[in-house]
UniProtKB/TrEMBL annotation:
One Gene Ontology molecular-function label: peptide-methionine (R)-S-oxide reductase activity
Keyword Oxidoreductase applies: yes
Transmembrane segments: none
Protein name: peptide-methionine (R)-S-oxide reductase
Domain named MsrB: residues: 15-139
A Pfam family per the record: SelR
The organism of origin for this protein: Actinophytocola gossypii
Keywords: Oxidoreductase
EC number: 1.8.4.12
InterPro entries: Met_Sox_Rdtase_MsrB (IPR028427), Met_Sox_Rdtase_MsrB_dom (IPR002579), Mss4-like_sf (IPR011057)
Highest taxon of source: Bacteria
Catalytic activities: L-methionyl-[protein] + [thioredoxin]-disulfide + H2O = L-methionyl-(R)-S-oxide-[protein] + [thioredoxin]-dithiol
Principal EC category: oxidoreductase
């Protein structure tokens, strides 16, 4: 995973362009690092086979075969589609240290990744991603 959140994103838009493209709720999460309420997102319990794309720029980020039920209230994945699809950076907000996950293509906020909590996944990681940051494109299984 890249940790260079200072690199120039491939998709660059003005704040006004993002506001015109995204709903107010999408903008609050994707561009202002907000978080949707747990258990409210459309993909929290989805089992549909497909590819999850960035809602802001349409980059492919996660596959449904890495999605797992972590009982946390948000869609959880044990790995991104490829290492270069996301950027990880330290997040010290809310009085704690976490690892923020950004789309590498447009630097939109996706969620956070947590490690070493015994998830029973191949990576022992939980990419806890806001549903509103994603668009699921179903594929035939």
């Amino acid at each position: 995973m890249s940790t260079d959140a200072h690199a120039t994103p491939r998709v660059v838009k003005s704040d006004q362009e993002w506001r015109e493209q995204l709903t107010a709720e999408e903008y609050a999460v994707l561009r202002q690092a907000g978080t949707e309420r747990p258990w409210t997102g459309e993909y929290t319990e989805t089992k549909t086979t497909g590819v999850y794309r960035c809602r802001a720029c349409d980059a492919e980020l996660f596959r449904s075969d890495t999605k797992f039920d972590s009982h946390c209230g948000w869609p959880s994945f044990w790995s991104p589609l490829a290492e270069d699809r996301v950027i990880l950076r330290q997040d010290s907000s809310l009085g704690m240290v976490r690892t923020e996950v950004l789309c590498a293509n447009c630097h939109s906020h996706l969620g956070h990744v947590f490690e070493g909590e015994g998830y029973g996944t191949p990576t022992d990681q939980r990419y806890c991603i806001n549903s509103i940051s994603l668009t699921l494109v179903p594929v035939d299984s």
